[in-house]
Design brief:
Rossmann fold, 7-stranded parallel sheet, 8 helices, binds nicotinamide-adenine-dinucleotide
Length: 265
């Protein structure tokens, strides 16, 4: 039997994590993975009841403390209350995951209402900035502190039919790379550029045909859509000590592919 434990650096025992939008899909997988690795986890979600139910289910699976709380990440009051409750519950906060994000599709990118552009920026970009600001004093006191963000492939390869979302996710990349430099040697900051992950949200948005088109394209090197766990594994690497030499990066976790948007004839 080997005396070398290759998984030791991936353990998150002693980490105190806050995962936004963790009640379902990708955020839920991140919360479950961190908890399974030993972290204490707070799930903050607009749907507080679902956050609590998901937290209880994960805790039953992993045996580690997981809590759920209702929080609108576009509300400054909610952000402050959520961070306060996390710190009260766990005695600190070392690991922030800014996972909330969403985008609506429009056939004509120049017909997107101004209000939609602003709302997308508030939800996908400013929420992560404000959550980071609220967590800052706690992160600065924590060993191995990290911020890891749910970015998108469309933040570097814009989709014209998701232009508000693409622009907001691109801004998230710049914001977080800038903050990685601000937090140098204190808090590591990275953003995962997520490709097409099959979730309930995708089914509801009715994107099946477009998703199929992207998956069939030769640029998709792995030939399949992602699972939430594919993404959560990358978050575990970046947020655990295993990623301790990585900061200020955007990491593409997308099946190796490009999301292709060809304008229909
Ligand atoms: N699913 C994909 O294929 C995909 C691809 C690229 C990037 N992403 C990004 O990954 C992240 C997670 O995606 P997902 O598909 O799991 O999302 P999802 O829509 O399935 O879940 C998002 C969660 O966030 C919560 N939420 C929404 N608005 C909120 C708010 N204002 N405050 C707090 N919570 C709020 C929802 O209740 C939900 O539980 C997002 O940032 C998304 O942009 C997803």
């Amino acid at each position: 039997m080997s005396s070398f434990d290759a998984f030791a650096d991936f353990r998150m025992t002693g980490h105190k994590a806050l995962v936004t939008g963790g009640a379902q899909n990708i955020g839920e997988a991140i919360a479950r993975t961190f908890s399974g690795a030993g972290a204490e986890v707070m799930i903050a979600d607009l749907n507080g009841e679902k956050a609590q139910a998901t937290a209880a289910a994960i805790q039953a699976e992993t045996g580690n403390p997981v809590l759920g709380i209702g929080c609108d990440v576009t509300s400054e009051d909610d952000i402050q209350a959520c961070v306060q409750q996390t710190v009260s519950a766990f005695g600190g906060l070392s690991t922030l995951v800014n996972n909330v994000g969403w985008g609506r599709s429009y056939d004509d990118p120049l017909a997107v209402p101004i209000e939609e552009m602003i709302e997308s920026y508030k939800l996908n970009t400013l929420s992560a900035m404000r959550m980071t600001a609220a967590c800052r004093p706690h992160l600065l006191q924590a060993p191995n502190a990290t911020i890891t963000n749910s970015g998108s492939l469309v933040g570097v390869l814009p989709a014209f039919d998701f232009i508000a979302y693409s622009a907001a996710k691109a801004a998230l990349n710049h914001l977080m790379t800038g903050l990685a430099h601000y937090f140098a040697r204190q808090v590591r900051v990275n953003t995962v550029l997520i490709g097409t992950v099959i979730t309930e949200g995708y089914a509801q948005a009715g994107l099946d045909a477009k998703v199929q088109e992207a998956l069939a394209h030769p640029d998709n090197l792995t030939g399949r859509a992602g699972k939430p766990q594919d993404v959560a594994n990358a978050f575990l690497w970046l947020a655990s000590p295993a990623g301790s030499w990585v900061s200020g990066q955007t990491l593409q976790v997308s099946g190796g592919g490009k999301r292709v948007r060809l304008k229909p004839e």
